[in-house]
Design a protein that fits this description.
Chain lengths: 148, 261, 118
């Protein structure tokens, strides 16, 4: 690709553009959530590797690690992780399907009011299903962590 | 029309972004009261301001009928064509007009499209033929035989008027200036899907770290497109060819010799 | 260190998709193995050490480690690439993401090997 010289970044939306959610529909919400949950899950993953590694230091180290994490806040954090990973997985599968052109409709002859075929209800319901499943997973996690 | 419609003219408050980059002046918002009817567009209102209130308002427009793609601007925060947006349909008491995001401001609502066009040119937006039939010295003229089904594959994307709304709505463009943007990528698909095009190298143009892979299907481009081009669809279809899921078994359009006599 | 000379962006993204899908399956197995016993006893020291001695479970853990590290750090690379564009920045983030990926895999593998020997 030919190198493109940069003009001054005058009026470029920058991070405000990433975070802008309203007015662009569910697909924008999905874009935003996918990114947010992805970064969050990576941070959790690094933390998870680090904390579970205390097991190699023997029983005492493991017990003191459990004291730190097996708290109400630790459990609430885990519930957020459950929700984030469910959304990221389900929506990620939907995105992989769209990236290979499945479920988007075919090009045709556009007519007023020009509803784009790629923003169809299969896609929107995919996003809703991802959101609903993550709430259900969080509920299930809540029952396990805070149940009897 | 009933008498009621004519009696009182409704007024709308236009809040317009003002800035002159050439004079390094600070930006500010101007407010104007403009009369409107059911069919008044935002462009009509802005031209009323320019004609009767403040002639220094800078605005770019041409056809007034969503064909030229000149009057793109952010209206109430969303990129729209001013000539294609009716005040009565916005259903707000104040209308905020700002220059298109992701385009450098020149003055007021006028923005600089040079980077946008550069990206458009980069994807080679023209039909490429291996033999130079058009310019051949011989006195023969050819025509391409394309079926309506072949035309349908790219026609939608050829309706692009280069208004820049999709480029302005795209979250990736907001931070990644080397990303070609929805317009250029959809045009790449338009030429890739055309059976007259014989280029073998098209897909490599955007298989780059700032190329097509920086699209994450936020769908905002298709949401704001005023012509139903659906750039997001074109980009995903293109990507399915690049991932090898869709097989490129395009049959070249047959060239038929045309006798001009 | 120029990753673009080694892998095309389309190949990197193929890896991204494949590691993503594969990670879902192995993480599901990992969670299900935790759920077959009551939550509290799944954190029992002896139970976990016994898990680390199960070669099947060790393989699952190692593949989760590799798959999520590759997928996650490539995701971070993508986000950072979109933030700024100049050669120096791109080189730095490529080096940083690849080395953190390798470091995390190495650290996790060390834990698995040590816990297996306990």
């Amino acid at each position: 690709m030919e190198e493109i010289e940069h003009p001054i970044r005058n009026n470029f939306e920058g991070l405000r553009g990433w975070l802008k959610l309203s007015g662009y529909g569910w697909e924008r919400v999905s874009y935003w959530f996918q990114r947010l949950t992805g970064v969050f899950l990576l941070i959790y993953f690094i933390g998870h590797i680090y904390e579970t590694s205390t097991i190699v230091n023997g029983l005492n180290a493991w017990e003191s690690f459990l004291e730190l994490t097996q708290t109400v806040w630790g459990h609430l954090f885990l519930i957020v992780v459950i929700g984030a990973s469910t959304f990221h997985s389900v929506n990620g599968i939907r995105l992989i399907f769209t990236h290979v052109g499945i479920g988007l409709g075919t090009p045709g002859r556009p007519d007023y009011p020009y509803n784009p075929s790629s923003l169809n209800y299969r896609q929107k319901s995919g996003i809703w299903i991802a959101l609903i499943l993550s709430v259900l997973a969080m509920y299930y996690g809540f029952n396990i962590l805070f149940g009897e | 029309m009933s008498n009621n419609d004519n009696k009182i003219e409704d007024k709308i408050k236009l809040k317009v972004y003002r800035e002159n980059r050439g004079q390094n002046s600070k930006s500010y918002y101007d407010s104007f009261e403009v009369p409107y009817k059911r069919w008044t567009t935002v462009l009509d209102a802005l031209l009323y301001v320019k004609g009767y209130i403040d002639p220094s308002l800078a605005i770019r427009y041409s056809c007034r009928m969503a064909s030229c793609g000149s009057c793109g601007m952010k209206i109430n925060g969303i990129p729209r064509l001013a000539c294609y947006t009716k005040i009565s349909e916005l259903e707000t008491s104040t209308i905020e007009c700002e220059p298109l995001g992701n385009f450098p401001i020149i003055r007021d609502l006028v923005t600089d499209f040079s980077l946008f066009y550069k990206h458009h040119k980069n994807i080679q937006p023209y039909i490429q033929s291996t033999e130079s039939v058009e310019t051949a010295a011989e006195e023969k003229t050819y025509s391409y035989n394309q079926s309506p089904q072949d035309v349908d594959k790219y026609l939608q994307f050829s309706y692009c008027i280069k208004c820049g709304l999709c480029y302005s709505a795209c979250p990736t463009v907001g931070t990644d200036l080397r990303f070609p943007g929805p317009q250029a990528l959809a045009q790449l698909y338009r030429y890739f899907a055309d059976t007259r095009d014989e280029s073998k190298n098209r897909l490599n143009i955007v298989d780059d770290r700032h190329g097509i892979w920086r699209c994450h299907f936020a769908g905002s481009c298709s949401k704001v497109c005023p012509k139903g081009v659906d750039p997001a669809l074109g980009i995903q279809l293109l990507r399915s060819y690049m991932l090898g899921v869709s097989k490129n078994n395009k049959k070249q359009a047959e060239k038929i010799e045309v006798n001009l006599d | 260190m120029e990753i673009q000379r080694v892998l095309k962006e389309s190949q990197i993204m193929k890896i991204h998709y494949i590691t993503g899908i594969a990670a879902i399956f192995v993480v599901a197995i990992h969670i299900m193995m935790r759920l077959v016993v009551p939550f509290e006893s799944s954190l029992n020291y002896d139970y976990i050490i016994a898990n680390y001695k199960n070669i099947f479970y060790v393989l699952i853990l190692e593949s989760i480690l590799v798959l999520i590290s590759v997928h996650g750090f490539n995701g971070i690379r993508v986000i950072l690439l979109e933030l700024r564009q100049n050669t120096a920045w791109e080189k730095v983030i490529t080096v940083i993401t690849i080395s953190s990926m390798i470091a995390l895999i190495a650290y996790g593998t060390r834990t698995i090997i040590l816990a297996n020997g306990l």
